[in-house]
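Record minuted for completeness.

…
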Amino acid sequence: MLNGLYCILEQDTIYGLFGRNGAGKTTLIDLVTGKQAPSGGLIEMDGEQVFNSERAQRRIYSMGERPLFPATKG
């Protein structure tokens, strides 16, 4: 659970999240990418709420743990 979090993510910037297991890293990513609805507060991009917004979803990318390209043998 995340409580009292306020942050502004700047354009053209790469961010990393570090923390112990259960600290809320995955929850934060799921909220910011619109995969999970916030139980309170707002998650917005350019003044528009991210959750259930097709326009916002087209502008967000989150890479999972799986490799983007399969391993190749050379």
